[in-house]
Write a structure and sequence with these properties.
CATH topology of the largest domain: Ribosomal Protein S5, domain 2
Bound molecules: L-homoserine
Shape: globular
Radius of gyration: 19 Å
CATH architecture of the largest domain: 2-Layer Sandwich
Number of strands: 11
Largest sheet: 7 strands, mixed
Helix content: 25-40%
Order of helices and strands: EEEHEHHHEEEHHHHHEEHEE
Distance between the termini: 4 Å
CATH class of the largest domain: Alpha Beta
Oligomer: single chain
Protein backbone atom coordinates (compact mmCIF):
# COMPACT_ATOMS: atom_id res chain seq x y z
CA UNK A 1 0.00 0.00 0.00
CA UNK A 2 1.18 3.52 -0.82
CA UNK A 3 -0.19 6.84 0.46
CA UNK A 4 0.72 10.40 -0.61
CA UNK A 5 -0.28 13.56 1.16
CA UNK A 6 0.26 17.20 0.27
CA UNK A 7 0.94 19.78 2.99
CA UNK A 8 1.01 23.58 2.62
CA UNK A 9 3.76 25.96 3.67
CA UNK A 10 2.96 28.27 6.57
CA UNK A 11 4.03 31.63 7.93
CA UNK A 12 3.92 31.93 11.70
CA UNK A 13 3.96 34.63 14.41
CA UNK A 14 2.59 37.30 11.98
CA UNK A 15 3.72 40.17 14.20
CA UNK A 16 2.32 39.91 17.74
CA UNK A 17 1.34 36.21 17.68
CA UNK A 18 4.64 34.63 18.74
CA UNK A 19 4.18 30.85 18.86
CA UNK A 20 0.39 31.10 18.45
CA UNK A 21 -0.60 32.71 15.09
CA UNK A 22 -0.01 31.18 11.68
CA UNK A 23 -1.48 30.92 8.21
CA UNK A 24 -1.17 28.50 5.30
CA UNK A 25 0.31 29.43 1.91
CA UNK A 26 -0.08 27.72 -1.48
CA UNK A 27 3.38 26.13 -1.70
CA UNK A 28 3.41 22.39 -0.96
CA UNK A 29 5.54 19.49 0.15
CA UNK A 30 4.42 15.97 -0.72
CA UNK A 31 5.09 13.03 1.57
CA UNK A 32 4.63 9.48 0.29
CA UNK A 33 4.77 6.41 2.52
CA UNK A 34 4.80 2.85 1.29
CA UNK A 35 5.31 -0.48 2.96
CA UNK A 36 8.40 -2.21 1.57
CA UNK A 37 8.78 -5.95 1.42
CA UNK A 38 12.46 -6.27 2.26
CA UNK A 39 12.69 -7.44 5.89
CA UNK A 40 15.22 -5.71 8.14
CA UNK A 41 15.44 -2.52 6.08
CA UNK A 42 13.59 -0.50 8.72
CA UNK A 43 12.37 2.97 7.86
CA UNK A 44 14.03 4.51 4.80
CA UNK A 45 13.61 8.29 4.39
CA UNK A 46 14.50 10.13 1.17
CA UNK A 47 14.20 13.84 0.42
CA UNK A 48 14.10 15.34 -3.07
CA UNK A 49 14.24 19.01 -4.05
CA UNK A 50 11.33 19.53 -6.43
CA UNK A 51 11.74 23.22 -7.08
CA UNK A 52 14.59 25.62 -7.92
CA UNK A 53 13.90 27.48 -4.71
CA UNK A 54 14.84 24.44 -2.61
CA UNK A 55 18.63 24.13 -2.80
CA UNK A 56 20.17 20.65 -2.60
CA UNK A 57 22.47 21.96 0.14
CA UNK A 58 19.56 22.86 2.43
CA UNK A 59 18.09 19.34 2.29
CA UNK A 60 20.53 18.39 5.07
CA UNK A 61 18.27 20.25 7.50
CA UNK A 62 15.80 17.35 7.14
CA UNK A 63 17.70 14.52 8.87
CA UNK A 64 16.98 11.08 7.52
CA UNK A 65 17.93 8.79 10.42
CA UNK A 66 15.93 7.46 13.35
CA UNK A 67 16.44 10.73 15.23
CA UNK A 68 14.69 12.70 12.52
CA UNK A 69 11.40 14.50 13.08
CA UNK A 70 9.90 12.42 10.29
CA UNK A 71 10.84 9.12 11.96
CA UNK A 72 9.71 10.44 15.34
CA UNK A 73 6.29 11.40 13.91
CA UNK A 74 5.75 7.94 12.47
CA UNK A 75 7.11 6.20 15.59
CA UNK A 76 4.81 8.15 17.97
CA UNK A 77 1.79 7.19 15.88
CA UNK A 78 2.73 3.50 15.74
CA UNK A 79 3.48 3.53 19.49
CA UNK A 80 0.04 5.01 20.13
CA UNK A 81 -1.50 1.82 18.75
CA UNK A 82 1.02 -0.42 20.52
CA UNK A 83 3.21 -1.08 17.47
CA UNK A 84 6.63 -0.04 16.14
CA UNK A 85 7.23 1.23 12.61
CA UNK A 86 7.87 -1.71 10.30
CA UNK A 87 9.54 -1.68 6.86
CA UNK A 88 8.57 1.66 5.36
CA UNK A 89 9.86 3.91 2.61
CA UNK A 90 9.10 7.62 3.12
CA UNK A 91 9.75 9.94 0.17
CA UNK A 92 9.54 13.69 0.70
CA UNK A 93 9.25 15.94 -2.36
CA UNK A 94 10.18 19.38 -1.18
CA UNK A 95 8.93 22.62 -2.73
CA UNK A 96 8.90 24.62 0.50
CA UNK A 97 12.16 26.52 1.01
CA UNK A 98 14.04 25.06 3.99
CA UNK A 99 15.23 27.05 7.03
CA UNK A 100 13.46 30.18 5.71
CA UNK A 101 10.58 30.47 8.21
CA UNK A 102 8.00 28.88 5.92
CA UNK A 103 7.06 25.82 7.96
CA UNK A 104 9.12 23.28 6.07
CA UNK A 105 9.71 21.15 9.19
CA UNK A 106 6.03 21.31 10.19
CA UNK A 107 5.03 20.20 6.71
CA UNK A 108 7.16 17.06 6.84
CA UNK A 109 5.97 16.19 10.38
CA UNK A 110 2.33 16.65 9.35
CA UNK A 111 2.87 14.84 6.04
CA UNK A 112 4.53 11.83 7.67
CA UNK A 113 1.86 11.61 10.38
CA UNK A 114 -1.13 11.86 8.04
CA UNK A 115 0.35 9.45 5.49
CA UNK A 116 1.20 6.90 8.22
CA UNK A 117 -2.25 7.32 9.78
CA UNK A 118 -3.88 6.58 6.42
CA UNK A 119 -1.62 3.56 5.91
CA UNK A 120 -2.69 2.22 9.32
CA UNK A 121 -6.42 2.66 8.59
CA UNK A 122 -6.85 5.99 10.43
CA UNK A 123 -6.41 4.96 14.08
CA UNK A 124 -5.97 8.63 15.15
CA UNK A 125 -8.40 11.50 14.65
CA UNK A 126 -7.38 15.04 13.62
CA UNK A 127 -7.10 16.34 17.19
CA UNK A 128 -4.82 13.45 18.21
CA UNK A 129 -2.61 14.01 15.14
CA UNK A 130 -2.51 17.76 15.86
CA UNK A 131 -1.39 17.07 19.41
CA UNK A 132 1.36 14.60 18.35
CA UNK A 133 2.62 17.00 15.66
CA UNK A 134 2.79 19.94 18.10
CA UNK A 135 4.60 17.79 20.65
CA UNK A 136 7.35 17.11 18.07
CA UNK A 137 7.54 20.69 16.77
CA UNK A 138 7.33 22.27 20.24
CA UNK A 139 4.78 24.95 19.30
CA UNK A 140 1.52 24.91 17.33
CA UNK A 141 1.71 28.05 15.17
CA UNK A 142 2.98 26.36 11.97
CA UNK A 143 1.54 22.91 12.62
CA UNK A 144 -2.11 23.96 13.05
CA UNK A 145 -2.49 25.86 9.74
CA UNK A 146 -0.54 23.09 7.97
CA UNK A 147 -3.28 20.70 9.17
CA UNK A 148 -6.43 22.84 8.97
CA UNK A 149 -5.45 25.58 6.46
CA UNK A 150 -6.29 29.29 6.64
CA UNK A 151 -5.36 31.74 9.39
CA UNK A 152 -5.32 30.11 12.80
CA UNK A 153 -4.83 31.10 16.43
CA UNK A 154 -3.73 28.07 18.45
CA UNK A 155 -2.40 27.01 21.81
CA UNK A 156 -1.02 23.69 23.03
CA UNK A 157 -2.21 23.20 26.59
CA UNK A 158 -0.25 21.58 29.43
CA UNK A 159 -2.01 18.23 28.87
CA UNK A 160 -0.85 18.24 25.23
CA UNK A 161 -4.25 19.02 23.73
CA UNK A 162 -4.47 21.85 21.21
CA UNK A 163 -7.13 24.54 21.26
CA UNK A 164 -7.47 26.46 17.99
CA UNK A 165 -9.83 28.73 16.09
CA UNK A 166 -9.72 29.72 12.42
CA UNK A 167 -10.11 33.38 11.49
CA UNK A 168 -11.21 34.66 8.09
CA UNK A 169 -8.41 36.50 6.26
CA UNK A 170 -9.70 39.76 4.69
CA UNK A 171 -9.72 39.34 0.89
CA UNK A 172 -8.50 42.90 0.35
CA UNK A 173 -5.17 42.23 2.08
CA UNK A 174 -2.20 40.88 0.13
CA UNK A 175 0.47 38.57 1.51
CA UNK A 176 3.93 39.12 0.04
CA UNK A 177 6.54 36.66 1.12
CA UNK A 178 10.17 37.67 0.57
CA UNK A 179 12.59 34.73 0.67
CA UNK A 180 16.29 35.62 0.90
CA UNK A 181 19.11 33.40 -0.33
CA UNK A 182 20.36 32.71 3.21
CA UNK A 183 19.11 30.14 5.70
CA UNK A 184 18.23 30.70 9.34
CA UNK A 185 17.69 27.41 11.18
CA UNK A 186 14.96 27.74 13.82
CA UNK A 187 17.17 26.42 16.64
CA UNK A 188 19.61 29.29 16.04
CA UNK A 189 16.77 31.82 15.82
CA UNK A 190 15.32 30.51 19.12
CA UNK A 191 18.71 30.48 20.85
CA UNK A 192 18.89 34.31 20.76
CA UNK A 193 15.58 34.73 22.61
CA UNK A 194 15.74 35.62 26.32
CA UNK A 195 14.25 33.28 28.94
CA UNK A 196 12.24 36.20 30.40
CA UNK A 197 10.93 39.42 28.89
CA UNK A 198 10.10 42.76 30.56
CA UNK A 199 6.45 42.97 31.68
CA UNK A 200 5.96 46.09 29.53
CA UNK A 201 6.90 44.08 26.43
CA UNK A 202 4.50 41.27 27.38
CA UNK A 203 1.73 43.86 27.79
CA UNK A 204 2.69 45.47 24.45
CA UNK A 205 2.22 42.13 22.67
CA UNK A 206 -1.00 41.25 24.52
CA UNK A 207 -2.52 44.54 23.32
CA UNK A 208 -1.28 44.02 19.74
CA UNK A 209 -2.62 40.46 19.56
CA UNK A 210 -6.05 41.70 20.67
CA UNK A 211 -5.88 44.42 18.02
CA UNK A 212 -4.83 41.84 15.39
CA UNK A 213 -7.89 39.66 16.02
CA UNK A 214 -10.23 42.67 15.99
CA UNK A 215 -8.58 44.12 12.85
CA UNK A 216 -8.96 40.82 10.98
CA UNK A 217 -12.55 40.30 12.12
CA UNK A 218 -13.60 43.82 11.13
CA UNK A 219 -11.21 44.21 8.13
CA UNK A 220 -9.80 47.34 9.79
CA UNK A 221 -6.59 48.31 7.94
CA UNK A 222 -5.77 51.22 10.25
CA UNK A 223 -5.97 49.01 13.35
CA UNK A 224 -3.89 46.33 11.58
CA UNK A 225 -1.05 48.86 11.23
CA UNK A 226 -0.90 49.14 15.04
CA UNK A 227 -1.33 45.40 15.46
CA UNK A 228 1.54 44.19 13.26
CA UNK A 229 4.27 44.83 15.80
CA UNK A 230 6.15 42.61 18.20
CA UNK A 231 8.47 42.86 21.17
CA UNK A 232 8.81 39.18 22.08
CA UNK A 233 10.98 37.80 19.28
CA UNK A 234 11.59 40.14 16.36
CA UNK A 235 13.84 42.67 18.11
CA UNK A 236 16.12 39.85 19.30
CA UNK A 237 16.28 38.25 15.84
CA UNK A 238 16.87 41.48 13.92
CA UNK A 239 20.64 40.95 13.92
CA UNK A 240 20.23 37.50 12.30
CA UNK A 241 18.38 38.91 9.28
CA UNK A 242 20.51 41.53 7.51
CA UNK A 243 18.38 44.09 5.72
CA UNK A 244 15.24 43.56 7.82
CA UNK A 245 15.45 46.88 9.66
CA UNK A 246 16.18 48.81 6.41
CA UNK A 247 13.29 47.09 4.62
CA UNK A 248 10.91 48.00 7.48
CA UNK A 249 12.20 51.58 7.37
CA UNK A 250 11.94 51.88 3.57
CA UNK A 251 8.37 50.53 3.55
CA UNK A 252 7.20 53.14 6.09
CA UNK A 253 6.64 55.52 3.16
CA UNK A 254 3.93 53.26 1.74
CA UNK A 255 0.48 54.08 3.09
CA UNK A 256 -0.93 50.79 1.86
CA UNK A 257 1.60 48.65 3.75
CA UNK A 258 -0.01 47.40 6.96
CA UNK A 259 3.11 45.74 8.30
CA UNK A 260 6.42 44.06 7.60
CA UNK A 261 7.37 41.20 9.94
CA UNK A 262 9.60 38.17 10.17
CA UNK A 263 7.98 35.06 8.73
CA UNK A 264 8.15 32.55 11.57
CA UNK A 265 11.69 32.53 12.92
CA UNK A 266 13.02 33.99 9.62
CA UNK A 267 14.87 34.33 7.39
CA UNK A 268 11.90 35.23 5.16
CA UNK A 269 9.97 38.45 5.61
CA UNK A 270 6.20 38.76 5.34
CA UNK A 271 4.65 42.00 4.11
CA UNK A 272 0.93 42.54 4.63
CA UNK A 273 -0.55 45.29 2.49
CA UNK A 274 -3.57 46.39 0.59
CA UNK A 275 -3.63 45.15 -3.01
CA UNK A 276 -2.07 48.20 -4.66
CA UNK A 277 1.51 49.19 -5.48
CA UNK A 278 2.60 45.57 -5.11
CA UNK A 279 5.34 45.91 -7.76
CA UNK A 280 6.77 48.91 -5.95
CA UNK A 281 6.72 47.09 -2.61
CA UNK A 282 8.50 44.08 -4.12
CA UNK A 283 11.10 46.39 -5.72
CA UNK A 284 11.87 48.09 -2.40
CA UNK A 285 12.65 44.71 -0.85
CA UNK A 286 14.66 43.52 -3.85
CA UNK A 287 16.72 46.73 -4.01
CA UNK A 288 17.30 46.95 -0.25
CA UNK A 289 18.57 43.38 -0.12
CA UNK A 290 20.59 43.86 -3.32
CA UNK A 291 22.50 46.68 -1.61
CA UNK A 292 23.68 44.02 0.85
CA UNK A 293 24.40 41.47 -1.88
CA UNK A 294 21.42 39.37 -0.87
CA UNK A 295 19.41 37.74 -3.65
CA UNK A 296 15.78 36.93 -3.04
CA UNK A 297 12.64 35.39 -4.43
CA UNK A 298 9.47 37.39 -3.77
CA UNK A 299 5.97 36.02 -4.18
CA UNK A 300 2.61 37.65 -3.54
CA UNK A 301 0.34 34.74 -2.70
CA UNK A 302 -3.26 34.15 -1.66
CA UNK A 303 -3.94 32.41 1.63
CA UNK A 304 -4.43 28.61 1.33
CA UNK A 305 -7.65 27.72 3.08
CA UNK A 306 -7.08 23.96 2.86
CA UNK A 307 -4.69 22.13 5.12
CA UNK A 308 -3.15 18.70 4.63
CA UNK A 309 -4.80 16.60 1.90
CA UNK A 310 -4.56 12.92 1.00
CA UNK A 311 -3.81 12.94 -2.73
CA UNK A 312 -3.23 9.27 -3.40
CA UNK A 313 -4.08 6.03 -1.62
CA UNK A 314 -3.15 2.89 -3.58
CA UNK A 315 -3.48 -0.69 -2.46
N1 LIG B 1 7.02 30.52 16.49
C1 LIG B 1 8.21 29.88 16.02
C2 LIG B 1 9.39 30.79 16.27
C3 LIG B 1 8.08 29.61 14.55
O1 LIG B 1 9.27 31.98 15.98
O2 LIG B 1 10.42 30.34 16.75
C4 LIG B 1 9.25 28.87 13.98
O3 LIG B 1 9.12 27.51 14.15
Amino acid sequence: MKVSVKVPATTANIGPGFDCLGLALPIYNTVTIEETVLPGTGVEINVFADSDIVEQSSLEHIPLDNNSIVYKAVELLYNMIGQSPAELRINIHSNIPIARGLGSSSSVIVGALYAANELLGRPADDLALLSIACEIEGHPDNITPAIVGGLVLSSQEDDGSVVYRKLVWPEDWALTICIPDFELPTDIARSVLPADVPIKDAIFNAKRLGMFIQAVNTKDSELMKFALQDRLHQPYRMKLVPGLSSIIENLKHFDNVLGCVLSGAGSSILIISEKSNLDKIRNVVKETWAEQNIKCEIRTLPIENNGVQIINNED
